[in-house]
Amino acid sequence: MSKRRRLTGTCIGTVAMSLVVAGGVLTGSPAGATAVVDPAPVATSPPASDEGPPDRPTPAIGAYLDYGPDGVTRMEELSQWLGGADLSVGHTYLPGDVWENIAGRPEFLRPWAEWRRGADDRMFVLNVPMMERNEERLSDDEVRDLLQDGAAGRFDRHYRKLATRLVELGVPDTVIVLGWEMNGTTYSHRCAPDPDAWKAYWNRVVAAMRSVPGQKLRFDFAPNRGIDAIPWTECYPGDDVVDIIGMDSYDQPPGDTFEQQVSDPYGLQAQVDFAAEHGKAISYPEWGLFRNGDNPAYMKGMLDWMARHKPLYQTITDYCPHGVWQCDENPRSSEVFRSKLFGWQAPPVTQTPPSDPPSAPPVPSPPQAPTPSPSTPKPGESKPARPTPTEPPKEPGAPERPGRADSEEWCVPMEMGEWINQWVRDFTVCVKPRFPQHWKS
C-alpha cells in the first residue's frame, strides 16, 4: 500500500469517526444506549381509501427503469419508443441496507417527487422494505426476533420519518408497496418465520405513517404469485391497513403456461377474487419475462389479463432478463409489448393534485430526458441497476461518492434527528484533503 493511500485512509477515517460521534451526540443517541420503544401510534387522519375496485377503462401504466434519477429521465425515452404512450406511473425502491436509507433520504426521493408533481394524473409507487439488511439471508430465528421487535414498535420512528419526508417533498399520495414478496424467501422482511408478528408489524408501520399530518398514502400488499414459502393469504394484515392487493408475477413456475399462472393455487385468478371479496383494487408492481426466456405468449397473456381486469396500475420490470426495452434478449416479446401499447393514452383520472413542498433552499432539478432519434429508440449501453441499491444516487452537480479513485473529495451524510430537524435540515459534510504535488505524479 502506498504512503499516500495510508495517510489518506487514516485522515478520512479520523474525520468520519469524529462526525459519527458528533452525530450521535446531536441526535441524543450515545453509543451503547438502549433503543427506546415508541408507544403504539395513533392515526390522526383517516385511513386512505381507494373506494373499492375503481371503474377505470384501463390501468395506469409505467415501468421500473432504474432506482435513481435515470429512472425518471428514461420515462420519456420509453414513451417515445411506444409512440408517445402516456406513462403515468413512476416506480422505484428504497434501499434495504440500513435504516437511514429506508427512511428515505431527501436527495434520493427528490427527483421522483419533482417528476410526480409535474402532472396531476401521475402516480409515484415506492417499494419500502420492512427490515434493514434486507437481502443478507438472515436466519429464520433472526427474522422472527426482528419481526417481534417491529411488532413492539422498535422501528416506528423510521417510518414516521419517511412519511414526513414524502409530505414535505409534496408527494403525500405516494403508493407504498410495503414488505413486498413477503410470502417468499428472498428478503429479510419475509412472513413465514412468524406470520402473526409480521401482520402486527405491518399494522404498526401503517399506523406510524398515517399518523403524520397531511399524508394521503395508499398501502399495497404485493406477494409473489403462488404459494412460495407460505400461502400469501396467511400474511394478509387486514382490510383497514391495506388499500391495494398487488402481485409480483414473473414468467416462471409455478405454472408452465400463462393459463396455469392464472389458475394455479394463489395465482392471478386467486388474487382478483381475493381483492373483490375485500373490496380492494389490484395492481402489478412487478412483472416480466424470466425462466421461460423470450415468451411472447406470456407477454400477450399478461397484457390482455391486465386490460380485462383493470388494475389500478402496472409497472413492468424493464431490465434483463425481465424487460422488453432496455433488454435486447427478448425481441419477440418486445414486439408484442410495443404493438399493444404503441400510442396508448390513459383516460382522465380524478386524483388530488400533490401539494407543493414547504419552502426550502433551492435544489438542482434532475437532468432533462434526451430526445432519442427514431433510428435508436432504445438506450445504448446504459443498463438499469438492481432495485435494491446500497446507496442513494448523488444529486446532479454533487461531488463524487467517497472512495472513488477519480475524486479527491470525501463526503459523509449527517442525519441530525427529528428534534434538531425543526431548525436544521440533514446535510452532508465533505472533506477535500490537500496533498503535496509530488504525491499526484
Automatic annotation (TrEMBL):
Please give the Gene3D superfamilies that the UniProt record associates with this protein.
Glycosidases
Q: Which residues form the active site?
A: E181, E286
Compositionally skewed regions (Pro residues) per UniProt: 350-377
- Tell me the InterPro entries matching this sequence: GH, GH26_dom
Q: Which domain of life is it from?
A: Bacteria
Which parts of the sequence are annotated with region: Disordered? 38-60, 345-409
Residue ranges spanning the membrane: these are none
Please give one Pfam family short name. Glyco_hydro_26
The annotated regions of Basic and acidic residues compositional bias extend over: 392-407
Q: Which residues form the signal peptide?
A: 1-33
- List each copy of the GH26 domain by range: 28-340
Residue ranges annotated as compositionally biased, kind Low complexity, are 38-50
MF terms from GO for this chain are: hydrolase activity
The UniProt keyword set, sorted, is: Glycosidase, Hydrolase, Signal
Name the family the entry cites.
Belongs to the glycosyl hydrolase 26 family.
The name this protein goes by in its record: Glycoside hydrolase family 26 protein
**What is the species of this protein?**
Streptomyces albidochromogenes
